[in-house]
Amino acid sequence: MSGATDAAAPENRIAVATQRQLIWWRFKKHKLAVFSAAVVLAFYMVAAFADFLAYAEPFDTQATRSYIPPQPIQWFDAEGNFRPHVFALKGKRDPRTFKLSYAPDPSDPRDLVLFAHGYQYHLFGLIPTDRHLLGLSHGSPQDAIFLLGTDQLGRDLWSRLILATRTSLTIGLVGVAMSLVLGVLLGGLSGLYGGTIDTVIQRVIEVLRSVPTIPLWMGLAAAVPNSWTPQQVYFSITIIISLIGWTELARVVRGRFLALREEDFITAAELAGASRMRIIFKHMVPSFLSHIIAAISLALPAMIISETTLSFLGLGLRPPAISWGVLLQDAQNLQTLGLAPWLLIAALPVIVVILAFNFLGDGLRDAADPYG
After folding, report:
1. What is the mean pLDDT of the chain?
2. 169 and 130, same structural domain?
3. How many CA atoms within 13 Å lie on the side-chain side of 137?
4. How much is the pTM?
C-alpha cells in the first residue's frame, strides 16, 4: 500500500501544481538552457556594473600606445609566491619598417590590486565614485594595464568592450520591450475585433515584412541627422528596430486570440461589462504568458544582431558611441587585422550572447508547454 502511495505522490504533486511551477520544473531539466540563463545573467551583470569593471577611461586616446598587444597577467613572482602583476611595456621601433613594437619588461613588475582608484563615474547613474574592480597598486591604471590590447587611437579595448556590452544589451532590452507592447496590443486588437481592424493591421504587417531588411535599415538610418548626439542616435536606433520587430509577435498573439475569443471565460468577461483592453491584458494575455516569454527570449538576440549589423555597416550607432558593432568597424580592414588581430575579440561576446539566448529560448519554449 505504501509503495502505491509513493508512486502516486509525484503524480499528485503535478496535478496540484501551478502553471509557473510546472514550467520551472520542466525548465530545470533542460541543462543547456539553465547554463545559458546563467550566461545571459552574467552578461547583464557586466552591463549593470560596466564602469566598475572597466579600469581605463574608454574615450582616452594616446597615439604613443597605438596597437599595443594584449598584456597577460602574471600570477606568481620569480620566487613562486602568489603575486598578480603585469610587466611594464617598452616600445621599440623597427629601423627597417619603422613599426613600433612593444615587449614586456620583466625588470619592471606592476602589482595589481582589487578595488583600485581610477577615473570618476556614477554607479547606476546615481552614486559618484572612482573605485574599479582592478587597478595598479601605484601609478596610473590606464597607462599600464592592457588586458585585451589597444586600438589604433590607443584606447583600451577591455574597457571599451565592457562599455559596449552595456550599450548593445540595453538596446536589445528596450527594443524588445517596445516591440512587446506593439505586438501584444496590435495583435490582440486584430485577433479580438476582427473585421476591418484585423484587415488593416494584417496588411500593415505584410507590408513591413515584405520590405527587404537591409535596405529598410539603410533608409531609416540614413534619415538620422549626423548632427545628433550619441544619445539621440541610440534612442532613434532603438525605435527603428522596435518598429520593425513587432510584426512576428503580433502574428503569434493574433493567432492565440482567435483561438481564445470563443472561450467561456472571455464570454463571461464580456457579459460582466469588461472593456476590450481589460479583456486583452487581464484575461487573454496571462493565459499564454509563457509563450510570450519564450518569444521574447528569441527576439532579444535578433534585436542585438540588428543593432550590431547596423553599427558595423556604419548605419547605426556612430563614434563616440560604443557598441559591439562600433568596435567591429575597426576589424573591417584586412591590413588592420594583420597589425592587430586582437580587435576581432569584439565578435566573441556577440557569438556567446546570441547562442545563449537561442538555447535559453529553446528551453523556455519547451517548458512553456508543461503537459506536452
Report:
1. 80
2. no
3. 9
4. 0.80
